[in-house]
Every structure is written in C-alpha cells, then in structure tokens.
Amino acid sequence: MPLGSELSASAVAHPNIAFIKYWGDRDSALHLPANGSISMNLGDLATRTRVVFDSSMRSDELFLNGVLQSGAAVERVRRFLDIVRSLAGQFICARVESENNFPAGAGLASSASAYAALALAASHALGLRLSEIELSRLARRGSGSACRSVPGGFVEWQAGSNDLDCYAFCIAPPKHWALVDCIVLLDTAQKEVGSLQGHVLAATSPLQAARLADAPRRLELCRQAVLSRDFTSLAEIIELDSHLMHAVMMTSAPSLLYWQPATLQVMKSVIGWRRDGLPVCYTIDAGANVHVICEADNAAQVRKLLGALEGVVDVLCSSVGGAVRLVE
Amino acid sequence: MPLGSELSASAVAHPNIAFIKYWGDRDSALHLPANGSISMNLGDLATRTRVVFDSSMRSDELFLNGVLQSGAAVERVRRFLDIVRSLAGQFICARVESENNFPAGAGLASSASAYAALALAASHALGLRLSEIELSRLARRGSGSACRSVPGGFVEWQAGSNDLDCYAFCIAPPKHWALVDCIVLLDTAQKEVGSLQGHVLAATSPLQAARLADAPRRLELCRQAVLSRDFTSLAEIIELDSHLMHAVMMTSAPSLLYWQPATLQVMKSVIGWRRDGLPVCYTIDAGANVHVICEADNAAQVRKLLGALEGVVDVLCSSVGGAVRLVE
Fold it and tell me: Domain extents for chain A?
C-alpha cells in the first residue's frame, strides 16, 4: 500500500443488556468467560465507528464523540487493532472515530457496542470478510460482552472450551418478541470500579463457584423463556441472575457495592408493580442504573411510573436491536 | 402439688448481634443450625420474663409488655413450655409475663432474649437446676439464636452433630473488649418475612451451600479477631459474613430483599467513614435496620454521625452484655 493512501470503513453496533450475566473470566487475556450468557441488543442505542487506516500516520488515534483520547483507552484500542492488523497482515496505523448516542460509563455497556462496531469496521477496512462467528470472536478480544453485540436480536454467548468456540449467536431475531428495556438513569456519580477490574475480583468471592455451577440451569431457563415468550419465567430468572452477580460482587475482596439507595428503591418499586399485575422486571449491570424490562404494550406506563420515582434523572427506552452492520 | 399453689421465677436476658450469622437449619424442629455462629450480647437491651406455674390454670397465658397475646405467639410459647414441663415431669399451666426495653420485630432478635429468659425462668420455677450448656440447649429449642443469649459476652454457637452438642459458650467475657453496637432504626414498616420462615428458604438459594462450606474459615477469622481485639480484621469478616447471608436471602425463592434504600445509605456511609480512618463497620440481620459496630471510645461520634443521616429514626447504643440471670 503506497504511503499516504487510506483504507476506511464505518459500522454501527448496539449495546446489549444481559439477562444471564457475564462476570469473571476463565482466561482474562482472551476474554474466555467463566460462564455462558444471554442478552438482548438495544436497537435504540448505538455506537457508530469509522476507522481510517492511513499509511502516513505514525500512531493510532482515537476520537470519542469528537474528542481526541489518550492513555488507557487508546492503548486498549491499539492492542485490539494489533489483532486485526495481524489477521490482515497489514501493519498500518489508524484513526478511529466513535460516537455513542447514549451516555458512556454509566453501566450501559458502551464497550460492547464500541468493540463490535470497531471489529467490523477495522476488519472490513483492511479487506477481511469475516463470518458472523469470526467477527463475534474478534469483538470478544476487545471487550468480552462485545461478542454479544455482533449478532442481532436475542443472543447467547457460549462459553466454549477455547478461543475458537467461544462466540455469540442469535437465538431469536429482533421481531421474535417486542421487549423494551427502560434504562433508569440515577442521580449518582460514575461507577467506582469498572467492569474490567471487577471481572478479576469475581474469583475472590466465596460464592462465585456456586454461581458458575448453577449457570447451565439458568441459561436453559432463560433460553426457554425467550423462545416461548414467557414473561413470568423471564422475570424470575433474570432477577435471580442479577442478584447472583451482585451477590458475588458484594462478597468479593474488596467488596463491590454497585447499588445505590435509589437502585434499591427502583428494584422494590418494580417488584411491587409486578405484584399488582404489571408484567415488569429488572436487571442491573456493573453500575447503579437499573434496566427495567417489559413488553412494548406496557412500555409507556412503565416509563411514566419510573419517571415519577425519586432520584430518577432520566429513562431511556429501547426496543430489540439488530446485528452490527456496515454503514456509509 | 396442691391445686391453687404456685411456682414462679423471673429472669433477665439480653439479645445478641451475630458477627457470623445463623441462617438455615439442618433440623428445623430441633433448631440445629446449618452452620456455627458467633455473637455479642447487648447489655443495654434486655428482656425480663416472669413465669408463674399455677395448678389452677387450664391453659398457658402470655403477656408481652403487659398485653395478653393469642394465636401463634402463645402456641410457640406453649410448645416450648411443654419441653420444660417434660424435663421437670410437672404438667402445670403457666402465665408468662415478658417485657422488652427495646422495640420488638425490628430485626433486634427479640426472640433470642425472650427464649433465653424464658428457659431460665421456667426451668428454675419447676425446680430444675440446669447447667449453662443445658440451658443453652433448652433455649435453642425456643429460638435458635436464643442459645447464644444464655452465656455472657462474646459467644460461639457450635453447630455440633446433634441435640446434645449443639449449644453456645462464652469465648470472651464482656470486659474483654469494649465494643458498642449502635443500632440504626430506620423509617420502615415491619419486616415482611420473619426469620423463622426465612430459615426455611435458605436452602432454595443456589448460594447457601457455598456460604456454609466457607463458614469454618469465617468462624476462625472472627474468633481470632475477637480474641486479639483486632478491629480491622473484625470489620472485614463481619461485613463479608453479613453480605453472604443477604446474598443467600436475595437469591432464595422467593427472593428476600430485607435492605431498604436507607439501609444501603447507612452501609455506604459506614464504609466511607472507615475509609476516612474511623474504625467502624456494620452487620445486618433479617430486617432493614443496621447494626454499626465500633469501640466505646468512638461510640459518641458514630452515634452523632448516624443520627444525621436521612431516614434514621433513632440510634440505640449498647455495650457488651452478660449472661442470662435470675432476678427477683
């Protein structure tokens, strides 16, 4: 490739919300997870990433929402691009421009959509034409849960036995079930411990082994609930799974207490509404915000109820999203 | 014993706060616990119980704080008195008058002090002269954690292998360490699920077996922290143990979420104060209230800090208490 020439591509990916959570790695370098997981893509939230490989550049550059980044964020992207460059056999630096239409760092899994979009844009720009499975495996190297943002709709990430069989696949397309995730943004500071560090702490909890041992049972219950559109069963298993992950977090050393008082207030409100007959449930990632899941018919009512709770700053609602895709 | 004659005795016992928690039974009829536990008696809180066996009565009567009780509370006392009557070989009905100097049903383990006092008063009234071990075993039959309110000071309840070796004993007397429990009463309704029913649910959590398997390690750490008056180690192990019990509670079926938003606010405040250098830690029983533990020198400051938090109705402070005892 002559000096000064450019290779570029752009891709859009959606973040995902896990119904059965990923917490802890078997292999933290390869992001081989300690257990399989199931998630739903969030179609109304998106990361759009443009990658330009430019043979005149001397180092990689990363712009997030228009702002040039430095330090750990760039280093992480550089290491990921090294994997793509090795696959393509082309060792050219890149400029990465990434934009989210949702707030970063608030437990909304922005790294999942970021690395899914980057995997597709970077690999395509360098001439690679990866299958969905190959792309999912590649995205996983950037951020574990990014592998789940590669396929569309409802997705399962199989733990697999090694790098080759550790990827995510669609278990039901977006139109299978009109679920909505009402993301409750709370009046809190940024989370104190990022999920990358948190995964390392999982093994220090006396409960992690029991959580993992029970995972196949929960995956089966969740898969069946999704496939049969059984909201009651879904509610039961995803709240249990969320509690299990937070149980491991709060009993790790040091203890990770991601919940805030307002988090617990939303949880208890949701439980109360469900007791009163409204089909609604919650799940919480590595942060204080609460993901309240309901069917589309009830989303307006749920959003209104949530907005009236104390400490709630905003409610972002999203329907089920599709796969990562190339864009102009 | 001629008709109309009376046999009576009165006893005072203190409730206790567990550092290593009792949650779940091996044998729910005998209250043989799934794991051993360690607690501290609360000397400033007390239950005073007078028992009068009266051969002219046709059924047992129970007065709590002067109010005649009916239903489940009386039935539970009657079954307990049946055990005492069998031991003594005297089958006479009794009037039980019990008074607490602290609010009941607010996660303050009133059944522990109640059955410790009742065990001593009832057995003594019927002429039994039980050893501390025998009395601890007897109190256990009324309420598991009552066995820990029989000895004084810092107490360990060994799980044992059967009814005979399942009792509590003193591991350090009250004067060994001037700890204070600042009990934070929150603005909440009574707890929704009592601990008697909760113990039954423990086995439904996928985490209970792991919590139990790790118990000997925690008991050893806690015992050593108490014996060496090592507050830093005590803080670490009792917060972990409390989190482990609540992890089991919130992952049981149905889920038990005893924490309220204000509970979490107190927890996070305590963690912050400790980070700032104040030796303080917390533990939470089957309720929303928080037990904040500190050394006597810091109790006034801790009480003041707690009283200033939102949602805090009252703070009851107690130093270490002695054994159950007969009174006039």
Answer: 6-176, 179-319
